[in-house]
């Protein structure tokens, strides 16, 4: 019988080494491209890689850009609490790539524009372009700050890793290689960070499968626990995660990201031909599907391990996003370096998203807010570097603000969808409705923004009742409370003798 403290874990030296290597490699890519492109750097090289990139690195960068730490931490927790029907996001991915490839890509690529919002001035008016740019900047700064802070908080509370040290170091490294190397550095660091994300997922999955006695027991546990709830075709739009809300709602969300978001569009228009750009989207689709399957199966592993003693209900973690880090520190603590690999995977998700955002923010600021009103062409390269540096600092500052928002974090994340929806409608109107004019476009954008704000903010004040959210059952029947107030978790896994886990004192969780 073996007993250990299963509360908040701590990093070993090997874990810090793995994490540091990930940051150093990312920074080194920026240094390399700054040196390789010395003497021939132009604004086109910085913003679009000189339009000479090929499909494979661009596709991997597209995959990494919005597969943030939210994917690494929240998707498995979502499966653990609500079931595996989020796998139907795969349907929305397929539809999104077809729509983007056939509707949005040809327009942006053939116009040879650098900022997507240039299209709004060409199609409608300069006022429409400016409003679209400002909305994009607001949503991106809000979202990026939270992408930096939220995973840092979850990982800090479970692993003991220094919160602000991680926030500032990742923010500074992102800013450094974006400023030094431009889009090519961002793309190639995304390729590296995507491989780290996959390695982190696979380390958890492989160890879970080994501990639980194979893939079949994990699937069986998930089925018995109601987690394989795929066939829910309820048409009620208020229900959480049915086939229709995920596949159709997800299509609109991902179309606003891949179809019109500057961070994504800037990548595929940097390809050397339109056929390479289309190929990058479809290779990216395979990457999205693979990461989705990994995150869903990781959630099934999470449930299989804790099906008799839920750490969240028992008060061992204070938020669902901490469940995956808790599992990592639990099952990988005897393998120095692997917890560090998973944390590096989570932060790689953050780095890829933040670097994409910084590069996109610098692009739209210079191209949409400065270039039309100034003739300082010789200064544009310096302005781009300054803008990238400024937005890096702003995003780190937004992470600090996010730490003060508490329960409003979810509302701030919703801003991404609230603003992205009306912008998607605006671009779609311009492309498929030749009779639309600038007055109608501005009116539609503003009215759509007001309506989506009303719905989004109202959802925060009036959350859906449990009958609509339908969280699945979790139990602590395998946990035994001792008289000292400590939790003793007794668990038997296939091929192993019974082990006792003594953990931190239980505290009540209001959400449960």
- Residues in β-strands, percent: under 5%
Q: Compute the number of strand runs.
A: 3
Main pleated sheet: 3 strands, antiparallel
CATH topology name, in short, is Sodium/glucose cotransporter
SSE string: HHHHHHHHHHHHHHHHHHEEE
Q: Given the helix and strand composition, which structural class is it?
A: mainly alpha
Assign the CATH superfamily.
Sodium/glucose cotransporter
Written account of the structure:
Keywords: Cell membrane, Ion transport, Membrane, Sodium, Sodium transport, Transmembrane, Transmembrane helix, Transport. Its main location: membrane. One of its GO terms (biological process) is propanoate transmembrane transport. One of its GO terms (molecular function) is organic acid:sodium symporter activity. By secondary structure, this protein is mostly helical. The chain has a single domain (13-469), classed as Up-down Bundle (Sodium/glucose cotransporter), CATH 1.20.1730.10. It is built from 18 helices and 3 strands. The protein starts with 12 loop residues before the first helix and ends in a 7-residue tail after the last strand. Mean pLDDT is 80; it is low at 1-8 and 481-512.
Topology overview:
Layout: H1 13-36, H2 43-48, H3 55-65, H4 69-82, H5 89-111, H6 118-123, H7 126-159, H8 163-212, H9 215-224, H10 243-258, H11 262-268, H12 274-305, H13 323-331, H14 338-370, H15 380-405, H16 409-432, H17 438-461, H18 466-469, E1 479-481, E2 486-491, E3 499-505
Antiparallel strand pairs: 1-2, 2-3
Helix pairs in contact: 1-8, 1-14, 3-8, 3-11, 3-12, 4-12, 4-14, 5-10, 5-12, 7-8, 7-14, 7-15, 7-16, 8-12, 8-14, 8-15, 9-12, 10-16, 11-14, 14-15, 16-17
